[in-house]
Design brief:
This protein is mainly alpha-helical. The protein is built from twelve helices and five strands.
Length: 374
């Protein structure tokens, strides 16, 4: 059972009682660290699904990439930590490598593993890899922003002594830096990732010129922040040579590589999803916005006048005109019916007159015949 402990921010007057265990199920402890990591992953996953239409990515195939990427990310994060672990614990007890409950995950290993697994799956599923990388990089920023608070709960990944107002102090920090507040590095990285997400999300939707550009900017942004934040930490993994911090070496490499590639691809304009309006038009991409059915009909004239840019007076006048025309049409029809009836009557009268004339002519002829005989 992990005991509770006190975390203080002396100059701010803040004090927190922290219990790393959220709840237990029988003998199984569910820790806040795992809950926060899971929350970060789920939010990143939902964001990715919500962005599929804008990025022109098939949702079902993306889910395959996410599942494989998650598994490979956990494997990569664990291997990264084990490979650069300074002690001989894992050499003497190799089975301890599989005991994730004792911690030991490297974020860069998770990113590398997740990207490789996701990219290979995208290739198998016949998806374009660059757009997947763009979407994944935004998801990484969400996950890292939230997941870093797990370091706060565990009181790890903190920096050296500081006199800044937000300096943090606890029993765990006292073991490494006695009698002094330390840099809350988890907070620095969380805020850096939050700011990076907001900037790159906006860039992706409005200014992206080619698939893969957001991913390169993510490598640049995160690499710069991680290089300086890692320099403050007291628990960094070191390289076997020169005693360099592993994460700083990786961060510097990603910054240099991303800068070079951004310069090389500066004139590239191959875009398949959202981005710069001009580039979207060049690639014949239409940003379709679904039209919601409001239940109104254009046949029976029940559209709100404001939707037609007409005033209520104009709409009423048009309706009155339509009614007048309809009434005139009815009157014309009645007039036509009456005229037709009159014509029929006249025809009948004419026919009757013709009969009478014929009968009169017959009588005169008979009378003439009688007179001749006589």
């Amino acid at each position: 059972m992990i005991p509770m402990y006190t975390v203080q921010f002396p100059k701010l007057g803040w004090e927190f009682q922290i219990d790393p265990v959220a709840f237990t199920i029988g003998n199984l402890e569910i820790r806040w660290y795992g809950i926060l990591i899971a929350a970060g992953f789920l939010l990143a996953f939902f964001y990715a699904l919500a962005s599929c239409k804008k990025m022109r990515i098939n949702e079902d195939k993306l889910i395959n990439c996410v599942i494989v990427g998650m598994i490979c990310g956990v494997i990569g994060a664990r291997l990264y930590y084990v490979i650069f672990y300074p002690g001989s614990d894992y050499i003497e007890n190799p089975m301890a490598i599989f005991d994730l409950r004792k911690g030991g995950l490297g974020i860069y290993g998770g990113i590398i593993g997740g990207l490789l697994g996701g990219a290979i799956t995208a290739k198998i599923c016949h998806l374009r890899i660059p757009p997947i990388l763009d979407l994944a990089s935004l998801g990484f920023l969400i996950g890292q922003c939230i997941g870093r608070w797990g370091n706060f709960v565990n009181q790890e990944a903190f920096g050296g002594a500081t006199s800044l107002p937000w300096g943090m102090q606890s029993a765990a920090t006292e073991l490494v830096v006695p009698n002094s507040p330390v840099h809350p590095c988890f907070l620095y990285e969380s805020l850096w990732c939050l700011l990076g997400f907001l900037l790159l999300h906006t860039f992706t939707r409005k200014f992206r010129k080619y698939d893969g550009q957001t991913f390169l900017l993510y490598l640049l942004w995160y690499g710069v922040g991680r290089f300086f934040i890692e320099g403050l930490r007291q628990d960094s993994l070191l390289t076997p040579f020169l005693g360099l911090r592993v994460s700083q070496v990786v961060a510097a490499a990603t910054v240099i590589i991303s800068l070079v590639l951004l310069l090389v691809f500066s004139k590239k304009t191959s875009l398949t999803g959202c981005g710069s309006r001009k580039i979207m038009l060049m690639n014949s991409i239409i940003d379709e916005t679904p039209v919601e059915d409001d239940g109104k009909s254009t046949i029976f004239g029940d559209i709100d006048p404001s939707e037609l840019n007409l005033s209520e007076e104009d709409a009423l006048a048009e309706k009155t005109d339509a009614d007048d025309k309809m009434e005139k049409g009815i009157d014309n029809d009645e007039g036509k019916e009456e005229s037709v009836a009159d014509e029929l009557v006249e025809e009948e009268i004419s026919a009757g007159a013709l009969v009478d004339d014929t009968e009169a002519s017959d009588e005169e002829a008979l009378e003439e015949i009688r007179e001749e005989k006589e």
